[in-house]
Design a protein that fits this description.
Length: about 550
């Protein structure tokens, strides 16, 4: 797979191997199974798996399932599928909950060392006692419980003697620390809820900030790559590894989050879009989820190439969605066969073409990739063109079809509009044209020139198809930092559905086959709604972009 550009994390790994600090690299990708993965996670996946690969190291997929209330097996399965689809294989699959016994024992060790205590303050009180950025905190009145009492209470917490929130276990560090995260952080809480992996075995669960360093250390992770908001947690991460006397000492390294314009990349917000019915599930093609992008027709290669182009830095960055689209076009350009599809059909009868005759014309499958060969497409007296390619009263510089005008049909002949047929309401329902047999494509005809070239499909053999055209889900360029407001910026036209036709030879198209439709851009056969009787195409991306790399 592609190598990543050099970046500061890669430099650290290289140095650690050269100095002998580590013999090999071990990373992990640690999603919480409380939603589907999105483009931001792809960056983390590519860093963790990609960098380890480059150094012949190993990467674990680890589900950080320490918060039972929000987690679900559906998410576990989707995450596995998405990581594989992006092109990566994990060396081991772990669940943080596999380590609950060990975590409990490490917490007991802290108590025995006088470094943890059971606190009866409630959540509000704990917050009050914590102090602020400018003021130190106050010690809890329960801070000086004896080791024996703490051991006894912690065991009784585990045995279910107390209700949710009645007690917590806290690390005993320093209530005056300038780093608020070191002011006796909570490390265990009571939650009487079943867990998808451990069932009802536990009613106390470790806090993420306590669990995570232990998980990394247990697995022998050398470089624990995480997003920048955990920078202030690093001292506590190191404290846990050291005070819990873990054999291996992982190094936490933070990098800036990747966000995209015109969408949201927070599981909470994506979940809201799903739960409140703004989209058709987590894999809706408008979603920036891996599964949504897959259904839309983005390829793993294009996502990887895009991510490699984004900087690895300490700052969160919001990248233009168009940059991602640029890499999708680049990847599909040579791979996707060209074809013709009519999204908004208008029937054309070629009055001087023999009735009942069908001829087969040659069409290149991809002029930019001649190896893809040619196909035969039928032509006859009846075809469909796009409604927008005809105007009865055109403005100046309109080169498509209008009464008396002649245009070229791609791969076929010149046709001239002779007559417009309307229904009772005056709506144009059919055009009568004539064709000139001399002008056949490939015949070398030079007699006269026309300015417009239209795409078309032969009508009697055309295959009905549904086209779904997408616009950005969110109209605002960036919504990441504003709470709640993103729903006000939802694009009411983010999906438009059309019933049209595609070439006969596409009848057997399979889900996820990708095509470039002449003038309309790239499309993917939708895996969810395509049936034996009906083809559904998702527009992946249009042909044109203003984006420059
Ligand atoms: P969200 O805020 O969307 O819920 P999260 O950070 O809570 O994301 P996790 O499941 O905990 O989601 O993430 C797994 C890994 O992916 C973490 O290491 C996290 O830092 C990383 N990650 C999540 N979002 C992004 C992002 N936008 N850019 C880069 N990495 C990310
Ligand atoms: Mg999280």
């Amino acid at each position: 797979m592609e190598n990543q550009n050099s970046n500061f994390i890669k430099d650290i790994m290289k140095k650690d191997l050269e100095s002998g600090k580590h013999q090999s690299i071990m990373t992990r990708f640690p999603p919480e199974p409380n939603g589907y993965l999105h483009i931001g996670h792809a960056k983390s996946i590519i860093l963790n798996f990609g960098l380890a690969d480059e150094f012949n190291g190993k990467t674990n997929l680890r589900f950080d399932d320490t918060n039972p209330a929000k987690e679900d097996i559906e998410f576990v399965n989707s995450i596995k599928e998405d990581v594989k689809w992006l092109g990566y294989e994990w060396d081991n699959l772990f669940f943080a909950s596999d380590y609950f016994d060990e975590m409990f024992n490490r917490a007991v060790l802290l108590i025995k060392k006088g470094l943890a205590y059971v606190d009866d303050l409630n959540a509000d009180e704990i917050r009050e006692y914590r102090g602020t950025l400018t003021e130190p905190g106050k010690n809890s009145p329960y801070r000086d419980r004896s080791i024996e009492e703490n051991l006894d209470l912690f065991e009784r917490m585990r045995d279910g003697e107390f209700g949710n929130g009645e007690k917590v276990l806290r690390a005993k560090i320093d209530m005056a620390s300038p780093n608020i995260n070191l002011r006796d952080p909570v490390i265990y809480r009571i939650a009487h809820v079943s867990h998808h992996n451990t069932g009802d075995k536990w009613c106390i669960y470790p806090m993420y900030t306590f669990a995570h360093p232990l998980e990394d250390a247990i697995e022998g992770v050398t470089h624990s790559i995480c997003t920048i908001e955990f920078e202030d947690q690093r001292p506590f991460y190191n404290w846990v590894v050291e005070q819990c006397e873990m054999k291996e000492q992982p190094q936490q390294i933070e990098f800036g989050r990747l966000n995209l314009t015109n969408t949201v990349t927070s599981k909470r917000k994506l979940k809201q879009l799903v739960d409140e019915g703004y989209v058709d599930g987590w894999d809706d093609p408008r979603m920036p989820t891996i599964s949504g992008m897959r259904r839309r027709g983005f390829t793993p290669e294009s996502i990887r190439n895009f991510i490699h182009e984004t900087a690895v830095s300490k700052n969160n960055a919001t990248v233009d969605f168009e940059m991602l689209e640029h890499f999708v076009r680049e990847d599909l350009k040579l791979k996707a066969p060209r074809t013709m599809g009519i999204i908004n059909p208008l029937k054309v009868v070629i009055t001087n073409y023999p009735e009942g005759q069908i001829e087969l014309l040659d069409a290149e499958n991809n002029p930019e990739n001649p190896e893809m060969g040619i196909r035969k497409i039928p032509f006859s007296r009846e075809i469909y063109i796009e409604q927008e390619d005809f105007m009865e009263n055109p403005p100046k510089k309109y080169f498509r079809l209008f009464p008396g005008n002649e245009v070229r049909l791609k791969h076929a002949y010149f046709i001239k509009c002779e007559e417009v047929v309307k229904d009772a309401d005056g709506k144009v329902v059919e055009l009568h044209c004539t064709y000139d047999p001399e002008t056949k494509s490939g015949s070398g005809f030079t007699g006269r020139k026309v300015k417009g070239t239209l795409h078309w499909v032969e009508a009697t053999l055309a295959v009905p198809a549904e086209f779904r055209i997408y616009e950005p889900l969110i109209l605002d360029k960036t919504n990441e930092d504003e709470e709640g407001t993103f729903l006000d910026h939802i694009n009411p036209n983010s999906i438009q559905v059309f019933q049209g036709f595609v070439e006969q030879n596409m009848k057997e198209s399979r889900p996820h086959e990708k095509f470039q439709f002449f003038r309309h851009g790239y499309f993917n056969v939708d895996p969810k709604h395509t049936t034996i009787d009906k083809l559904v195409f998702n527009q992946i991306v249009s042909l044109k972009s203003s984006f420059k790399l």
